[in-house]
Amino acid sequence: MTCRVAILISGRGSNMASLIEATQAADFPAEIALVLSNRPDAEGLERAKAAGIATLAIDHKAFPDRESFDRALDAALNEHDIAFICLAGFMRVLSDWFVERWAGRMINIHPSLLPLYRGTQTHRRALADGVLVHGCTVHFVVPELDAGPIIAQAVVPVVPGDTGESLAARVIVQEHRLYPQALRMICDGTARLENGRVVFSRGWNASGALHSPG
């Protein structure tokens, strides 16, 4: 059986598009059953509609506090029989109540090699520190921001003359590759959460490495 997945967005949904494209493969163990946004004008909603996917907007501004919005979000997800959530540019800090309710069933992609550079402005901070490699991480969501168990990471070189924009452009290419791979591993059982860590059911290729400069 395929896993019914909801993607939560706030904007244009570039990672959403990569997930939708990947799940259209016949052998992918998940289906995107819903795209939901806290912003009714989010560009990604129209992109999802064009792909034939159910969409829903729940405007967070219509609620008096964070938890009341999150409860409406939870009710909508249950109404659509959602089993798993992918956050893809969802610009809301979710309440502990919601995160704990969906513990082990919600993942996020973050534009850094966690645990480095939690939060925002990750590319600028990486450049300021003079690192030679940077990247992105898919992780389970926990109440502490960007601190959940890591599922997958991708690494890019930082090169002389990089700006935050040029580095971000290189990282997002890897985000679009990594997020579908991580979702596949979770849904087919290749990666699973055990005692607060991600464990894998297949071996690793330990021979590869990225050298920078190189």
TrEMBL record:
SUPFAM superfamilies in alphabetical order: Formyltransferase (SSF53328)
Catalyzed reactions per annotation: N(1)-(5-phospho-beta-D-ribosyl)glycinamide + (6R)-10-formyltetrahydrofolate = N(2)-formyl-N(1)-(5-phospho-beta-D-ribosyl)glycinamide + (6S)-5,6,7,8-tetrahydrofolate + H(+)
UniProt keyword annotation of S-adenosyl-L-methionine present: no
CDD domains to which the protein is assigned, alphabetical: FMT_core_GART
Function: Catalyzes the transfer of a formyl group from 10-formyltetrahydrofolate to 5-phospho-ribosyl-glycinamide (GAR), producing 5-phospho-ribosyl-N-formylglycinamide (FGAR) and tetrahydrofolate.
GO molecular function terms noted in the UniProt entry: phosphoribosylglycinamide formyltransferase activity
Cellular component annotations (GO), alphabetically ordered: cytosol
This protein's UniProt keywords: Purine biosynthesis, Transferase
InterPro entries for this protein: Formyl_transf_N, Formyl_transf_N_sf, GART
Binding site for (6R)-10-formyltetrahydrofolate: R66, N108
Family membership noted in the UniProt record: Belongs to the GART family.
Protein name in UniProt: Phosphoribosylglycinamide formyltransferase
Residue ranges of domain Formyl transferase N-terminal in the record: 4-183
Swiss-Prot/TrEMBL site (Raises pKa of active site His) positions: D146
Functional pathway: Purine metabolism; IMP biosynthesis via de novo pathway; N(2)-formyl-N(1)-(5-phospho-D-ribosyl)glycinamide from N(1)-(5-phospho-D-ribosyl)glycinamide (10-formyl THF route): step 1/1
GO biological process: 'de novo' IMP biosynthetic process
